[in-house]
Amino acid sequence: MPTIYLDVLLLQSLYVNYFLLRAAAKLTHTPLHWIRCGLAAAGSSLFSLLILLPPLPAWFQLVCKLLAAALSVTMAFGLHRESFFRQWSCFFLCNFLLAGAILGIGSLTQKGFATWGNSCCYLDFSLFQLILFTAAAYSLLHLCTLLRGRKRHTDSRFQVFLRLGERRLMLDGLADTGNNLTDTFSGTPVIVCSAAALEPLLAGTPVEQLRGYRLVPCTTVTAEGLVPLFRPDEVCIRNLSTEKSRSVHAMVGIAARSQVPFFTLCSWNERRFFL
Question: Candidates 2.60.40, 3.30.160, 2.40.160, 2.40.70; correct CATH number of 158-272?
Answer without folding.
Answer: 2.40.70
